[in-house]
Amino acid sequence: MANRPSNIRTDVTLSEFTTIRLGGSAKYFAAPKTDDELREALQWAKGESLPVTILGGGSNVIIPDQGIEGLVIHPADGTLTLQDGIIVAGAGVPLGQLIAFALEHDRGGLSWLIGVPGQVGGSVAGNAGSRHDWIGQYVVSIEAMSPAGKIERFGPDACAFAYRSSIFHTNGYIIVRVGLQLPTVEPKTEQSLLREMAKKKQRSQPIGAACAGCMFRNVSPAEVSEAAKSLADADGVVPVWRLVTEVGLVGYHLGGMTISDLHANFMINTGTGTADQAVQLMSLVKQRVRDTLGIQLHNEIRLLGF
């Protein structure tokens, strides 16, 4: 084996890097803060014929109990700048810091992201959002590194943003920087909006619990079965929490994992849960909803390394 770069560690516990606190160890782990560190890690992995897995803020993923073979890369560039009215954020910037930086420069529009413990790179790759907003709508440019270590620039049209996805889930490129054009706001009004949104989420979501965000995507009008039409909102979309409630799984326990009483599309690790139990619980919810209401749910949580 060639000399391993000094910034690549071995046998790093990955549960510390996921919000649901599940997962075994990475055989090799790097948290590059610069393009050169990322390129060096990729080149080393290529030379050793190792698979590469990207782990962002860990807020919507489950990692196997046995861990991940190969190299896990956790982008750690936390740079934030304002350039000609565009906020340029490193992939490792926490979303809370992005919101605060934007507010300092009289920019806003991201109140719906308050309380989400992700990072910029992963959130953009997954086009994080709410029912009516998503981060991709503010992206004006992305710099991403190819598997060969070359930095390339992507405009928004090239990113193929869709519901909870983008081209970066499939093209093998790693986001290193994102340019965001956010609307100008009145700071006091935006602060008030952020406080109200934070309070709303505290009332309706298990903020602070060991969870990975929503388990499943909401059901589009085209996917709604006859048996579930009465559960739809005015726009025809059926929120998954209603389906889980309808089939009687609110508060259901499987080992150390449980369906949240506060929001039934959230699954919580009570402290003794395992990744296997989490996957089994998600499968149980899917089966119960399919058998009872005739709807096939689709994961919003990503299963890495399974």
Oligomer: single chain
Major β-sheet strand ordering: 6-7-10-8-9
**What structural category do the secondary elements indicate?**
alpha+beta
Order of helices and strands: EEHEEEEEHHEEEHEHEEEHE
Question: Which residues form runs of ≥5 with pLDDT under 50?
Answer: none
Whole-number count of domains: 3
- Per CATH, the architecture of the largest domain is 2-Layer Sandwich
Radius of gyration: 20 Å
CATH topology of the largest domain: Uridine Diphospho-n-acetylenolpyruvylglucosamine Reductase, domain 3
Average pLDDT, rounded to a whole number, is: 94
The rough form would be described as: globular
What percentage of the residues does DSSP assign to strands (E)? 15-25%
C-alpha termini separation: 26 Å
Major beta sheet summary = 5 strands, antiparallel
CATH class descriptor name of the largest domain: Alpha Beta
Q: Tally the beta strands.
A: 15
Query: What is the percent of helical residues?
Result: 10-25%
Number of helices: 6
